[in-house]
Design brief:
The complex is a heterodimer. By secondary structure, chain A is an all-alpha fold. Chain A has helices at about 1-30, 35-40, 45-55, 60-75, 90-125, 130-140, 145-160, 180-190, 190-230, 230-240, 245-280, 285-295, 300-330, 330-335. Chain A starts with a helix and ends with a helix. By secondary structure, chain B is of the alpha/beta class. Chain B contains eleven helices and ten strands. In chain B, the strands form two sheets. A six-stranded mixed β-sheet of chain B has the order 6-7-8-3-9-10, sandwiched between helices. In chain B, strands 2-1-4-5 form a four-stranded antiparallel β-sheet, covered by helices on one side. Classes of the chains: A mainly alpha, B alpha/beta. The interface of A and B includes residues 126, 240 and 334 of A. The structure holds adenosine-5'-triphosphate and magnesium ion.
């Protein structure tokens, strides 16, 4: 049952990614701006441009180019970045850990923050505290992630500079890790200096990404908690002597988490999308920051590689959300 | 304050008034007692306030509905004099609820076992082994064939009748002095209703637990109870021994309720609804009582 679900999902994932590959391939080529012309000095002739075009294979037809590219992709070769002159796969996978760590930490922050606010709101339902929390989360929600980023830069970078506002880690720290997962590998190796520096650099970008999602979780989860708290099984728990807080945490939370989880899955992909601008804002060396450079320089192979990786990431996340949904809901697990 | 005397009633409700925020009364000067081991039926039409009495005792009145006057005593202890936390634990230790709808009264995402044993370990302070043994014992007593398998199941894997038997087992597990059963059979198939009723009666006799049994079925009243309280619009219309009520009902409304009950062996008698004139008279009495109550409040 579960295996079949996973298999079907992997198949649809492959088809989706193929579709994304075609769309991106065509789009970046019909979009204005010639990457080759940008690489040559101002006085270059048409002949010069055509020659360099041929070097990168851009003189062939669109279909031919796609087949050549796809053939490479199937062998793990995503082409070479025009501007950085390195294999796309290497570049992209080298940056992926930074973005994964950033978005995971942001997700954790959002769930923790939003979850706490939702539980408190449900506990204090019908009081001024609930209204206050509702108003606050409404306000937080109406400010997008990159604006939070600007606010943080302004407050903690300029007015009250207590946190580092650029980079991923203190450049003075010597890091000889095998992967680029600084937090994960740092924890495994016991290099707490690396973990600490990475986390302190990450705090503001992660908060910028987390706040809108936290507010959304706070609102939806609280609504679902309140709904669960009118159900008979919560009334029975109260009769059995459990305090209101215990009823919320032990009886209502898991029921309320199910519908909330579906939203978190969708919103998490938006959060990852948000890393593009937020990473730029904090000069954080992740995939999103690289994507902006790639677009500015019309680095077609690199853009393709990044977009494809993002698309793969999104489908994997959706799969994980569906699986955890099945896992949390006993009615789906057996039925 | 929580002192109990040997001759205290299990439940003593004295002149209880429950009202909506604007003062609209849902229970009007209700008094009733339950002796140890006694089953008292609470009857009346829909909306008469039967469930409200149970909720007031168990401390689960709906939001905004408040006690405005009167006392509730459990084994001689004044519930209204306690702090909310003390009251909650006192009520939990002395009483239990068998709910109306077994399909919604079990948490759908939790296994059956912990739903029975959690209150025993966390509220009554039993060891895990003791709670588990007690759960098995009671599941067995309510004729659940494989207690251990059932305790590892989720509610949706079990039938409605089975879930109600589980809820009955859970209610009796901590040996409460009082059980409130709020129409525990109405949500079930007719065939299952009889089994459930018999089970509650048997367990009640074996344990000597007092039961406040909410129903609108006079047939059920005759089968299960020793005492009856008849309610109309939140007012006690009649309070007597069940036998007396059936043989010689004092109030015309009670007579009408009995007459309106289809009895299989007296099938010759046609079904008789409660006469309209009687209902009108009862409403007039209710309004008069409210006027008097308001006047007394103003003084
Ligand atoms: N949450 C609530 N808010 C306002 N009024 C309520 C609420 N719950 C019940 N009532 C009112 O209180 C009165 C008594 O309700 P109660 O549930 O005790 O009736 P009942 O005798 O149990 O009826 P039934 O046989 O339908 O269960 C009814 O008039 C009902 O409309
Ligand atoms: Mg009722």
């Amino acid at each position: 049952m579960l295996l079949k679900t996973v298999f079907v999902r992997l198949l649809t994932t492959a088809i989706t990614l193929f579709g994304v590959a075609i769309v991106v391939f065509v789009l970046v080529r019909v979009a204005p701006g010639n990457p080759i012309a940008m690489m040559l000095p101002p006085g270059a002739t048409e002949k010069d441009i055509a020659a360099l075009n041929a070097v990168y294979g851009f003189d062939k037809s669109l279909a031919e180019q796609f087949i050549i590219w796809l053939g490479g992709v199937l062998h793990g070769d995503f082409g070479t970045s025009i501007t950085l002159r390195q294999p796309v796969a290497e570049l992209v996978l080298g940056r992926l850990p930074a973005t994964l760590e950033l978005s995971s930490i942001a997700l954790l922050l959002a769930v923790a923050l939003g979850g706490c606010v939702a539980v408190i709101g449900a506990r204090k339902r019908g009081t001024g505290t609930e209204v206050g929390l509702d108003l606050t989360s409404g306000a937080v929600l109406s400010v997008p992630d990159f604006l939070w980023g600007l606010i943080f830069v302004l407050v903690f970078g300029v007015l009250w500079p207590v946190l580092s506002i650029s980079g991923r880690v203190d450049p003075r720290i010597d890091i000889d890790f095998t992967t680029n997962f600084y937090i994960f590998e740092g924890l495994l190796r016991g290099r707490l200096d690396v973990v600490g520096s990475t986390l302190s650099h990450m705090l503001m970008p992660a908060m910028s990404l987390a706040l809108p999602l936290a507010a959304m979780i706070a609102q939806l989860l609280k609504q679902n908690l309140k709904e669960a708290l009118t159900q008979d099984y919560t009334t029975l728990a109260r009769v059995r002597g459990f305090s209101e807080t215990a009823v919320i945490l032990r009886e209502a939370l898991r029921n309320a988490a199910l519908p909330t989880l579906a939203l978190v899955g969708v919103q998490f992909t938006f959060l990852i999308g948000g890393t593009v601008i937020v990473e730029r804002l904090f000069a954080f060396e992740g995939l999103g920051n690289m994507a902006i450079d790639a677009v500015i320089n019309r680095d077609l192979p690199l853009i393709q590689g990044i977009v494809l990786l993002f698309a793969a990431l999104f489908t994997v996340i959706n799969l994980l959300v569906d699986l955890s949904y099945t896992f949390l809901n006993p009615r789906l697990r057996h039925g | 304050m929580t002192m109990t005397t040997a001759h205290a009633h299990t439940l003593d409700i004295i002149n209880l008034n429950i009202a909506l925020p604007r003062g609209q009364r849902l229970l009007r000067n209700v008094s009733l007692q339950l002796e140890p081991g006694e089953v008292r039926a609470l009857v009346g039409e829909s909306g008469a306030g039967k469930s409200m009495i149970g909720k007031a005792v168990l401390g689960i009145l709906p939001h905004r509905i408040k006690r405005t006057e009167g006392e509730i005593l459990l084994e001689g202890a004044h519930l209204n004099a306690m702090t909310p936390a003390t009251r909650r634990s006192t009520v939990a230790k002395m009483s239990a609820l068998i709910p109306q709808d077994p399909l919604t009264a079990l948490n759908p995402v939790r296994k059956i076992g912990p739903q029975i044993t959690d209150p025993l370990t966390r509220i009554h302070g039993w060891s895990h082994q003791r709670a588990l043994a007690r759960a098995r014992e009671l599941l067995d007593r309510v004729h659940i064939r494989a207690p251990d398998r059932v305790m590892h199941s989720y509610p949706h894997e079990l039938s409605g009748g089975m879930r109600q038997r589980i809820l009955i087992a859970a209610a009796f597990a901590p040996s409460p002095r009082l059980i409130v059963a709020d129409e525990p059979t109405t949500a079930l198939d007719v065939t299952v209703q009889k089994q459930i009723l018999r089970l509650i009666r048997e367990l009640q006799r074996e344990t000597g637990t007092a039961v406040l049994f909410v129903t609108h079925d006079m047939g059920v009243v005759a089968k299960i109870s020793q005492k009856v309280t008849v309610l109309f619009a939140g007012r006690v219309i009649e309070d007597a021994a069940t036998r007396t009520v059936f043989e010689n009902p004092a109030h015309p409304y009670t007579q009408a309720l009995i007459a309106a009950t289809p009895t299989p062996n007296v099938s010759a008698e046609p079904f008789q609804p409660v006469p309209a004139a009687l209902i009108t008279e009862l409403h007039r009495e209710t309004l008069a009582a409210d006027a008097l109550y308001a006047q007394r409040g103003r003084r």
